[in-house]
From TrEMBL:
It comes from Kangsaoukella pontilimi. Residues 168-224 form the SH3b domain. The keyword Signal applies. Keywords: Signal. The keyword Hydrolase does not apply. This is SH3 domain-containing protein. InterPro entries: SH3-like_bac-type. Residues 1-22 form the signal peptide. Gene3D superfamilies: 2.60.120.380, SH3 Domains. It holds the Pfam family SH3_3.
Length: 344
């Protein structure tokens, strides 16, 4: 009974020593592309704590190792939906060896690793410089939908891009920061939710744009909130880098305006099907310095040899089939643009 009382007393001290503070910092952790672990250097002072959010799936194994220049520094691990003041999944002080824990995860979601100073050191206002090693290994399941925008299983049917500063969000070919960029989604743009999964320590969601031309890929869930079926202005997304895409007009329309972004020396080809005798209109509108473009006939001969974007094209076609408009960035900086194309 004495031992039980001592353990209960210890757990009470741990829980009360790290109550929620207005100065607690939250940090979203993501692993380098293709990696299952990361190392974080940080500092904690006084009664404050640093809360590291790490995404993982049920059945995976998480490992946490903490080293510091202050022996009164510890960590707790909390299951999804729990944090300071709640029951901890793991307590660094009680691990063997101390501050070195590894365990199988009971649920999918965002885990919290809280780093803090023990009560006496916190009361004295001490500071600790620490290094935190976090890894998550084990296979992930199939992408699933969720009844909540921040979870994994059930789902809002639609998500919305929420990027601070009104920037754009990369839509990637796979659930990894190293996967190729398919397009860029505008801040506030609604997309269809095709399911999420945890990988590289964060939530990735497979989504599809709502407007033509349609794009499908993976976006970091940190920047997605619950959305609607409304097609927002700015959709579809922005194509990025070298590549080729087929241009399709919306129902009843005779033109389209795809957008893109190219690094210096890159080009992108837009494939447009048209018939002999139809009139083709092309105008490239760069966001900065003039760019270049050229147009190929279906037999790969030049319809228009390379010209500046300052010159638009309008003329009758004499071949039927796939015509190609190639936009080229010959400037010395990354360039955004739109291509206005029409057929009559």
């Amino acid at each position: 009974m004495t031992l039980i009382r001592h353990v209960l007393a210890f757990l009470f001290v741990v829980s009360t020593a790290i109550g929620v503070s207005a100065q607690d910092r939250s940090v979203n952790v993501s692993f380098p592309p293709g990696m299952t672990a990361t190392t974080i250097d940080g500092t904690v002072s006084g009664r404050d704590a640093v809360l590291y959010r790490v995404g993982a799936e049920a059945g995976q194994t998480m490992s946490v190792v903490l080293s510091s220049d202050n022996a009164a520094t510890y960590f707790n691990v909390y299951a999804p939906g729990r944090s300071l003041g709640d029951e901890a999944l793991a307590i660094g002080e009680m691990s063997d060896p101390i501050n070195n824990w590894s365990g199988d995860l009971p649920a999918s979601g965002e885990y919290t690793v809280a780093v803090f100073l023990f009560r006496s050191a916190a009361r004295r206002g001490e500071t600790s410089n620490f290094r935190l090693d976090v890894s998550v290994i084990g296979s992930t399941g199939e992408a699933v939908s969720n009844d909540f925008a921040d979870g994994l299983a059930g789902g809002p049917d639609f998500l919305q891009v929420a990027v601070s500063g009104g920037g754009t969000l990369n839509l990637r070919a796979g659930p990894s920061g190293g996967a190729g960029i398919v397009t860029r989604l505008s801040n506030g743009q609604n997309v269809r939710n095709l399911g999420c999964r945890m990988t590289e320590g964060r939530r990735w969601c497979r989504v599809a744009t709502l407007a033509d031309p349609g794009y499908e890929g993976w976006a970091a869930g940190d920047f997605l909130i619950e959305g609607t079926a409304e097609t927002t202005s700015g959709a579809p997304g922005m194509s990025v880098g070298d590549g080729e895409e087929r241009v399709q007009f919306a129902s009843g329309a005779s033109g389209a305006e795809p957008r893109g972004q190219l690094a210096p020396g890159e080009s992108r080809r837009y494939v447009l099907n048209a018939r002999s005798g139809q009139n083709l209109y092309v105008r490239v509108a760069p966001q900065g310095d003039p760019m270049s473009y050229q147009i190929f006939n279906p037999d790969q001969t030049f319809l228009v040899d390379q010209v500046s974007s300052e010159q638009e094209y309008r003329s009758q076609l004499w071949q039927s089939g796939d015509h190609v408009v190639e936009v080229i960035n010959r400037t010395n900086s990354v360039a955004g643009y739109s291509v206005i194309m029409g057929i009559e």
